[in-house]
Amino acid sequence: MKKEKVSIQEHELVPKHEIMEAEEIRELLDKYKIKKEQLPKIKLSDPVIKEIKADVGDVVKIRRQSRTAGKALFYRLVIE
Amino acid sequence: MRTKRIKGIKFGLLSPKEIRKMSASKIITADTYGEDGFPIEMGLVNQRIGVIDPGLRCKTCGGRMGECPGHFGHIELAAPVIHIGYAKLIYRMLSVTCRECGMVLLEDAYFLFSVSDTELEHDLKREIISEKWHKEFGDNGFTLSTNASITKEKNDEWAITDKELFIIRKEEGKLNVYDAGEKGRFLNDIELGKGKQPGVGEAVKRMFKEAAKHTVCSHCGDHLFDLAADARLVNILNKGEDVISKELRRKFATEGHGLSKNPSIKKETDNKWLITDKDKRYIVKKGNGKLTVDCGTPQRVIKFDKPSTYIEIDEKERKRRLMPSDVRERLEKIPDEDIALFGMSPKSARPEWMILTVLPVPPVTARPSITLESGQRSEDDLTHKLVDIIRINHRFMDNRAAGAPQLIIEDLWELLQYHVSTYLDNEIAGIPPARHRSGRPLKTMTQRLKGKEGRFRGSLSGKRVNFSARTVISPAPDIDIDEVGVPEEIAKELTVNVNVTERNIDLLKETVRRGNEHPGANYVRRADGKKVKITETNYETLAEELGIGWKVERHLRDRDIVLFNRQPSLHRMSIMAHYVRVMPGKTFRLNPTVCPPYNADYDGDEMNLHVLQSEEARAEAKILMAVQHNIISPRFGRPIIGGIHDHVSSLFLLTYEEKKFDREETLEILKGIEIDDLREPAGTFRSKVSGLGFEDRPYWTGKQIFSMILPAGLNLQFQGKVGGVTIRDGNLETGVIDEIAVGSFKGKIIDRIVRQYGEEAAKKFINDLARLATNYILRAGFSFGISDEDIPRAGEQQIREETMREAEHKVDELIRAYEAEELEALPGRTVEETLELRIMETLGRARDEAGSIAERYLGIENAGVLMAKSGARGSLLNLTQMAACVGQQSVRGERIKRGYRGRTLPHFKPADRSAKAHGFVRPSFKEGLSPTEYFFHAVGGREALVDTAVRTSQSGYFQRRLINALLDLEVKDDETVRETRDTIVQFKYGEDSVDPSACEYGKVVDIDEIIKDVMAGTGTGA
Question: What single string gives the DSSP state of each residue in B111-167?
Fold first, then answer.
């Protein structure tokens, strides 16, 4: 059988990850008055990060379904 | 006070030099006190190493007992011994260092290529990897990635870190590029690992693993032969591995050292080459116009014979014991530069210091002796052990001086090792613990530090606390929920410190005058700080003398605030602030409604009480920890305090149907509850008055009585356990009060009162509820006994002859079908599993049916049913088991099938699959169980017991770890959750910023409730 590459992003249990623009990141950091290093982290080896081809230093925006709030936003800094 | 910042912590080994330097006295005598009763000079209890006798002065610092902290002494050991704590590390070091030269068995850096270019050098100096360098590496067959980084190591030496580690040295005007080799790489890894995770430890571990693979030293060796150093040969050597020429091969072969197909040649320096061929190593050195060829020193296998013996096995499998002195010599040979490979610093920890030649003797203050009543001295365990060491040390020296045979010396050496080892750790596997004369194992160094009662967990992290008390708890439904009954005996022991001021001086004088009578005092502290005990003889004078600026340690009194706690303290409600109520008796009394937060009951539970000593602490306790602040649990946002057991039964009974109470009865039920006026009676009944005729007497209903403790204006509607409950304007109009209304963990009414009327009102409601319920149930009477499980003969017969017989039939039929192979398997199951499942199902249904038959005969007037239906205690299943049928016993969710081969018990035939042979208990508990049924029930019960035991310990530990991990997370003003370094953990607390304890059922607003409220018209608003 031929192996087909499946996109894990399409799975319902995987929240949507996207790489943020520099401008967006700046706004985010200003909003919380933090430095980039104070963001939660995600490993470069994370399957989703591999798939969206984010690099070390990128910040990803994660949209999740939340049990308490319906929808929730989360941000993570990609690290090695 | 000057504040200081800790910059770092250094760990190291004590060197013999250092031990001698810090020693105040050499110890040579094993005795302690002389015949004159004074400590012996140079003895173990020596006046230079600390004083423990009153009146004597320390000869080192001149301090008296209590002033002199004690000083270390030392014992010169007759022969070196292994420090048992480092035995494993010593073994590992021996295994990875050369037995000849002491260097770690790793290969050095080796030469790759060389360049000479000023531009390249310039790049190095600026610490950048230029294009030119990339090209240079490429030309020589090495690739540098874009991630490569460069650092300056020292003058004229740089390191390039990529996947490989390169070292560039400027030598004789040229830039020589080296591969860092194994040693260089590990040194680099260790350096990089500092202060990181997994860090140095991990790198060192890898180093040990790698170095142990080498069986031949690449640094030193025995001379094999010489070769003429002609330029051609040197050139061949320089070219390296790929082109090992015929010529070199031939030269080696003539000398009797044939080389295999592809040996590797590494140039380490201009004058040294390393040829590795299978498990052989040749070290070629140039000098004096010739090439000397050495063979790398072959290493021998070292065996570690626990706990402290090392054996070297040579090529011919001969064994030789390495004595501690041999080991020490080897470790001494390890060069300083190689120490870093062990993750250690040669300045603070040379490996040979792990072998003891001098033993530090702790000061006497660290091992004080105690004088027994008989006047005899009893020395500390450590002193005993030191005595042993000194004795053996002497014997060793005497024997050696007398020229005793080697065998005897070795035995004594072994004995010395034993004593020093047990002095350090008396619980070493493989050696018998040193014992006291009485047979008790001695408590030596390690034992002092280790474990729950050890120095760390027992004395530093945890200490005993003053101003606290502990005793058994018992119930007192008539005291408030935020009170605690304290026995007078305890109240007289626990004290509160009060400053004497103008305003309280008269009161305190009165207190002191009472002396040790209860609301009195134990001590006064004069203005000059002197503490005076109040006794029967001096209390009057003290009361007279008492002046402003004094302090009084007065007894605990009513309304003092204290902390009350029950272990395990799993959540914040495990410690709450209560107000004292001094009572007769010997137990702490607490209102049963506060049992759930503490998870307490009265079967012998003990609780702790702490008296607060400062005004700040009292204020904090009152504002943050008072019981009423903890009615709503932050865990699930509902009241955790509420009616339990009989409270629920009682209020259920009171409000069930329409019970009528005349004035007297009503007042009696409401006894102890602050109510200003009785509400309008519900009606009147006509009753006979002594012979004269009739009189109309007012009556109140149970629902009305309950309504009297509800706050005015309360509107609430909810679904209770038996139908809807409506409360309008503080009146219970319809419905019955049950667990959902007032119970702990549920308590809808309590929940609403807290939110609408506040914690004070809720506290009052719970107080009233407890009193009302207790009063009524005392009046009404409530009991449950064996006769309450009686069901009429007809019912019993129906169960036995219809339900059970039918079920057994069905089971037999299933078994028959299975044996005839007619049974059809359920999807995903084997036929056998299907049979089991269907039998379980059939029998389960049979029990339920039996239960409902029994239920038909047991109405709400039955106490058991009432308790189950109101939610006070127990379930209908419990009743079913008592009155109708106990049902299937199970182990791991299956019918019981363990026991003998093919059967559970010898009472059955092998392969019997019937219900009764696999743990189905047909009768009810009341009817009684047969021996086999009883046994099966015990089997099932045991599983439940084991499960709870295992679960509590496991979940307890799991929770502990979770708490430790989340301990210092904080919700900040911007609603983010951050840890101590201000790193964000959650961008919005709980993703919705909702505190469940401050909201209705976890929602920001409860729209349904608001609508209901508005519709009701009274509109107090939530």
Answer: EEEEE--HHHHHHHHTT---HHHHHHHHHTT----TT-EEEEEETTEEEEESSSEEE
